[in-house]
Amino acid sequence: MTWETYRARRAVLDDVLTRAQEDLDASLRFDEIHGAIELFGSRDNVLLTLQRHWTTHLAVRLDQALEDGTSLDAAYVRLADEMPAVRAVLDAGTRMSPTLRNVRRGEVAMIEAHKAVERDTPRPHGVLRRLRERAAAVKAPAAPMTTASLWAGNYAWR
Q: Nearest Cα to 39, choosing from 56, 16, 23, 57?
């Protein structure tokens, strides 16, 4: 994809989201949005692109919530408040696109996986801190490798 194509696709998505703020139904009529079908190939691809955008932001927010020890539900709600047009288009698009409905199952699975980690992680410690502590406990000092030991076939892999 060229930068020109990227910018044109971004303009289409911006148009969809602008329309969603005024009239949600109009935002889903992609055949009325200049370049939408030509640049994305189908209405599903427009919706899937918005879904990828949403999912990327959601994954970051959920990871950060786990690290901070804050509520995953609150992180989801905060993101929905920050991206209301994206959330509205995706919610409405789910009703008209079986493909999007299928992809949204993956979003639900990601949220459930984060909730499982949240349940298994003690509150005072963030997930990343806990992983770092485990990694530090497992690390053993590696024997220095010299050229002679490499030539002799004594590989010190640990």
A: 16
